[in-house]
From TrEMBL:
Keywords: Iron, Metal-binding, Oxidoreductase. InterPro entries: DIOX_N (IPR026992), IPNS-like_FE2OG_OXY (IPR044861), IPNS-like_sf (IPR027443), Oxoglu/Fe-dep_dioxygenase_dom (IPR005123), Plant_2OG-oxidoreductases (IPR050295). Pfam families: 2OG-FeII_Oxy, DIOX_N. The gene is LOC105058534. Belongs to the iron/ascorbate-dependent oxidoreductase family. It comes from the Eukaryota. GO terms for molecular function: metal ion binding; oxidoreductase activity. Residues 202-305 form the Fe2OG dioxygenase domain. This is Protein DMR6-LIKE OXYGENASE 1-like.
Amino acid sequence: MAAPLHLHSSQASPLPNSIKELSDSAGLSSIPFLYASRSSEALLTDVVEHEVPIIDFSLLKKGTPDQRSQTVRDLGKACEEWGFFKVVNHGVPERLKDTMVDALGGFFDLTEEEKGEYTRKHVMDPIRCGTSFNLNVDKFRFWRDYLKVFVHPVFHSPAKPHGFREISQEYTTCMRVLAMDLLAGIWESLGLEESNLTTALDLHSCFQIFIGNYYPPCPQPELAMGLPPHSDHGLLTILLQNGVDGLQLKHKGNWVNVKPHPNSFLVNTGDHMEIISNGKYKSVVHRAVVNSKSTRISIANAIGPSLDAVVVPAMELVSDGGSSVAYHGMRYREFIEHQQANPLKDKSVLDRIRL
Ligand SMILES: O=C(O)CCC(=O)C(=O)O
Ligand SMILES: [Fe+2]
């Protein structure tokens, strides 16, 4: 095995602006030392293959009352036991998914100069792209470029590539509608009134962020990491992938490889679902690994409460369940800033507000 290349920013060739630029450079057979982020813990934990629960969305929307009730129970079980599930029969056209992935690929293909308008931004800037997670705090670099765009309550979009704005508006609207229907089913599975929650979380001005991830082939995938283990900050995240494996989630102490499933979305519960459900539905730690053969593109749409909401556990779950309040509130905006401005690690922000 080739040893990682020692390359520091003080050396003659500076580190690239993007992982795409590095991976495009011809003859790369080992990775710069700064990208060898895998800890011995990560290498020692077993990786197993497992199917995550599958939810038939059409039964939630158009099934008989019995089918809907069963699907709500299945949703609850999936959230409680896995915090991850796949959604099939979701009604989002294949064409829209493919065009969105292509448009995102087009963004990453822009020149560094064209992307430059959106780089080195503050974590709460509505359009931001870059490499790794946050270069101000990353000890190692991750094998990943990203584009993050705030798409609700105010829709933003980079000006290029041509057509990105239209397609991302259509796609992210679909994702929000899907998320609201799934949230309604999840509230029901918790025995909570949908209208109470819509008010408590101010879902009419829910915060939605589009996160595009680009992981090019890596000559030493066993040493590098696309994204380190973390949980997502919102209520739900809906993930689309370009058919290349790479997502792993932590389940009962093992890393589980999640295989792409044709025409499905992968959904996971975030930290704010854990808070509102008082810990019944936990956010689950996941990571993105890389491979030596194919470029992986993923698109996460994270849906959370309003940025101004201070979410606390639903009182019905605390009093009826006979448990005590497990988290104190933190304004959602502040929660996100903490996560984005510090090294990305497990459930570090949620751990700060756990009682
Ligand atoms: O690329 C992936 O599969 C994971 C992306 C992810 O976890 C995120 O963007 O929060
Ligand atoms: Fe994530």
